[in-house]
Amino acid sequence: MQHGEILTGLRRRLPVLLRRLRLRLAASIRLSADYSRANMVTFGVVAVIGHPLYYYFWTDVYPQQYENLWLRILSVIVSLPMLFERQLARSEFWRDKLTLYWLFILLYMLPFFFMFMALMNDFSPIWSLSTMAACMLLVILVFDWLMTLILAFVGGGLAWGVFMLVDGELGPDGLPLEVLLPTYLFGLIAGSTFNYKTELVAREKLAAITDAVGTMAHELRTPLLGIRSGARGLQNYLPAVFEGFELARDHGLPVQPVRKAHYRQMQSVLERINAETEYTSVILDMLLVNSSRTTIDHSTFQRESMNACVEAALERYPFHAERERAIVEWLPGDDFVFRGSSLLMIHVLFNLMKNSLYYLAQVDDGRIRIWTEHQRSGAHRLHFRDTGPGIHPDDLPRIFERFYSGLPRGQGTGIGLAFADLVMRSFAGEIRCHSVFGQYTEFVMSFPPIEDDDSN
C-alpha cells in the first residue's frame, strides 16, 4: 500500500519535474548561446587556421600515432559559417538556427573531437593534455554549468561510440583511462563551480542594486503624486481664476494686469508638468517591476492598433529639435492589432527612440526607420532600425539584462531594454536585436496573431 502511494505521488509529480527540467534546459541553452556567441567569429578563425596547422604539426614536425586528414577537413568546413556570424544573423533563414549551430560547434569541436583523437592515440601525453585544455576552454566559453556538463558528457559519449565502431581497443602505452577520466571530471566540475560562484556573486550584487532601486522608487512615488495632483488642480482652476480676473477688470477693480500670453504660458507649463510626471511615473513603474522581478499585470490588456501606437509615440515624444523628428521615418503599412497595452507599447518605442537618437548624434547622416511586417504564419512584426554606429559585439548579448547599460556612466539606467523585453513577453511576443558594429542596429518585435484579427 505504501509502495503504491509512493508510485502514485511520483506519477503526479513527474509532469511538474519534467516541466521544470525543460524550462531549466531552455534557460541553459539561452544563457550559453547569449553569453558565448560573441566569441563565434574568433573561435571560427582559430578552428579554420588551427586544424590544418596542427595536422601538419602532428604528421611532419612531431608525428603522432593517429591523424585524420578528412576529419580535419570536415572540421574546417563546419567551422566556416562561424566566420560569417554577423551576416547570418541578418538572414531570416539562419537567424533562428544560429543558436543550435553554435551549440553543435561547441559539442563537436571540443568534447567530441578531442576525446575521439585522444582515444585513437591511446591517450598519449600530448592528446591527454590537449583534451584537458579542451575541457577548460569549454568551461570558459559556455556560461552555464549545466550546459557545460551536458556538452561534455554527450560529446565524450559520442566520441567513445565512434571509437568503438572504428577501433575499439586502447593500447597499453598511453595514460590509464581510470586516471584521466577523474582528472577531466574534476576540471569540468571545479571550473563550472567557480563559474557558478562568480555568477552567484554577480546575482547578489544585482539583487542589492534592485532592492536599493526599488526602495528609492517607492520613496519617490509619493512626492511625485503630490506634484502631479497639484499641477492638475491648478490646471483645473486656472480658467476660473483667469475668468475672475477678467470680471474684476471689467468692473474697474484694481487688479494686476495678466496678459493672455502669460495665461497660455502657464497652461503650457502645467501641461508639461503633467506630461513629465506621467512619464516619470512610468519610469518608476519600470524600476519597481524590474526590482521586484514580477510580471506585468495582464488584467487591463485589450486589443490595440500598432499603427496608432507608433503614431502616438511619434506625436508625444519630446524631440529636442526639428532635425531629430525629421530623421525618423515611419512607413505605415497594413495595420495589425495585438493584445496588450498601448501605454506600455508607446514607452517601449520611447526607449528605443531615446537610445537611437543618442547614438545618431554621433554620426552625420543617420536615420531611423520604423515599419510593420506580416508573416505567412499569421504573426506580425514591428521593425525599428537606425543607421547609427551599431552595438559592439561584446555588449550585444547583454543589452536586455537589467541594469546593464552600454551608455557612458550616468547616461543610462540599464532598465529600458530590460523593461521592453518584459513588456514584449507579457504580450506573448518577443524582442530581438540585430546589429553590425559601425553600420546599423535593428530591433524586431514579434507579436502573435490574435483571434478575430481582421487585418490583412
UniProtKB/TrEMBL annotation:
GO terms for molecular function: phosphorelay sensor kinase activity. It is an enzyme of class 2 (transferase). It holds the Pfam family HATPase_c. It comes from the Bacteria. The keyword Nuclease does not apply. Its EC number is 2.7.13.3. The chain crosses the membrane at residues 38-57, 69-88, 100-120, 126-143, 150-167, 179-196. Keywords: Membrane, Phosphoprotein, Transmembrane, Transmembrane helix. Residues 215-451 form the Histidine kinase domain. InterPro entries: HATPase_C_sf, HATPase_dom, His_kinase_dom, HisK_dim/P_dom, HisK_dim/P_sf, Sig_transdc_His_kin-like_C. It catalyses: ATP + protein L-histidine = ADP + protein N-phospho-L-histidine. This is histidine kinase.
